[in-house]
TrEMBL record:
<dbReference type="InterPro" id="IPR024338">
    <property type="entry name" value="MID1/Yam8"/>
</dbReference>
<dbReference type="GO" id="GO:0098703">
    <property type="term" value="P:calcium ion import across plasma membrane"/>
</dbReference>
<dbReference type="Pfam" id="PF12929">
    <property type="entry name" value="Mid1"/>
</dbReference>
<keyword id="KW-0418">Kinase</keyword>
<dbReference type="GO" id="GO:0005262">
    <property type="term" value="F:calcium channel activity"/>
</dbReference>
<dbReference type="GO" id="GO:0016301">
    <property type="term" value="F:kinase activity"/>
</dbReference>
<keyword id="KW-0732">Signal</keyword>
<keyword id="KW-0808">Transferase</keyword>
<feature type="signal peptide">
    <location>
        <begin position="1"/>
        <end position="25"/>
    </location>
</feature>
<protein>
    <submittedName>
        <fullName>Putative acetate kinase</fullName>
    </submittedName>
</protein>
Amino acid sequence: MLPLDRISMLPAALLLLLNAALSAAQTRTTLQTGFVTTISTAPNPPFFILAAADQLAVSIALCKGTTDTPGPRFFLTNSSTTASPGPDGGDNVFEIVLDQGHGSWTGTFPSGGVLGVTNVPPTMTFEIGVSTGVPIHESAAVAALFGDSTATQAILFSPPFSAPDIEAPKYPNYTLPSAIPSIPAAPSDPKNYTLIVSPTSNGLTSMQQTSCALRTQRSTGVVAAQNLWLRDTRGWRFEWFMTGLTPKTNYTAYVLLDDYKVTKPIFFTTKSSSFSCSLVSRLPYCPSIAYAVPLPPPPSPALSYDSTNMPASLADPLISSLTNFTTTLTTFACGRDFYSPIVTCADCQRTYRTWLCAVSLSRCADTDTAPPSAALLPSQSPQTRNAGFAAGSGTFTQLLPCLETCTATDRACPNFLGFRCPLPRFNAAQSYGVGFIDSGRDGEMGGGSTGLWADDYGNAWCNSGW
Ligand SMILES: *[C@@H]1O[C@H](CO)[C@@H](O)[C@H](O)[C@H]1NC(C)=O
Ligand SMILES: *[C@@H]1O[C@H](CO)[C@@H](O)[C@H](O)[C@H]1NC(C)=O
Ligand SMILES: *[C@@H]1O[C@H](CO)[C@@H](O)[C@H](O)[C@H]1NC(C)=O
Ligand SMILES: *[C@@H]1O[C@H](CO)[C@@H](O)[C@H](O)[C@H]1NC(C)=O
Ligand SMILES: *[C@@H]1O[C@H](CO)[C@@H](O)[C@H](O)[C@H]1NC(C)=O
């Protein structure tokens, strides 16, 4: 407050204004910078004070209702002359427009500001976040990653974080990762991510797409295991192994990235109850593999296969091939002589690993739930391609490797290795999914029928080894 002697010197009209502002300020809540305020009843007066700052990001999240019901509207001003920002506009009044329950505004507040809210439905709860950095609430552009499912299980991954610092090998010490590479230490303070899985029929996508709204939904199924896994150089992810799902059901999955940020939804379908393959993941020599292979259920109590219980008949030849390939590759003067201006021995080894894993570990598909044009092949275990699968695991439908896993290796490796792929115009389609990512024309990149090997709706057309 101004000292009384100074107030008395002010012109009468201004004094009135000042009194009005002061009394309003006494009943208005000040939003703390760096905090989230949860409001569960329509505020009266419907205004909040924002402290002065060089820059503030004010974010809103609605915690109740569906995306198509009318919600509250938020108006904000960074002007010292507007006391009650609202739909009638005014000097520097901005509406925070909400999209699927989220909205934010970032700008300068040299003399503070006011946030006004109108049209608050009787049972609405919402959060207001104020930060000096990025908005606290966010609908992140990233999404969960679906590995694969069986009739009642699924493997899902969080978006990546904490990418490891992996230095490309350099001459004269050009050392490629060994067949079983050493894995860097996992981050000791991983993010607090929460997986939400719900049958798509529950309609989570029509709820407000905010962390506070989705958190109220009980996730379906059981997260039987949660582990950190380094699938690729993009970073660590949580790997969630889910059990207790229902066969042939479409599910929606979100990841709550912390208390206030949420990913886009993805969808996946469980297989029919006759599906008899088992999930495999967490193989250091095939780090990106997380799908169903034609193996019987693993020995109890394991729920899936990983490097601790993978049959040696499958793992040993794969590791031996990788070792031999790497030995042959490094007879080339990697890092000193160059066979290409764009690719290196490390790219060759990496693409070969992906290809070898995809062709050695057959991926099972379910004829009932696979997308119509997927590259499916009725197959028999043991297979001609990999005798390591135990005899007697019977028939299954194979999702053929994408031809692009082969052509990527062909492009990344020096010619002397003699790595070749079948040509689309000859017999490639007998052993590969052809024409999904790249067109079916020999050597042409892009232009495939789907442009993708899999999508965010749980469809997979060929096995990318990823
Ligand atoms: C308020 O924000 C607007 C838009 O960012 C900006 O142009 C204006 O200068 C700001 N007003 C003040 C007083 O900083
Ligand atoms: C060569 O590189 C490898 C892997 O980066 C490292 O472990 C090894 O110590 C290096 N050797 C020498 C002689 O620098
Ligand atoms: C992670 O987030 C959940 C849900 O918001 C919370 O219950 C839990 O306490 C958090 N855990 C940590 C370690 O912060
Ligand atoms: C799952 O649900 C989504 C959203 O309704 C839909 O787009 C997708 O096609 C469904 N997938 C299957 C396999 O039914
Ligand atoms: C790798 O090389 C060793 C030694 O030459 C050989 O015995 C083995 O069969 C090779 N492995 C594969 C999978 O070809």
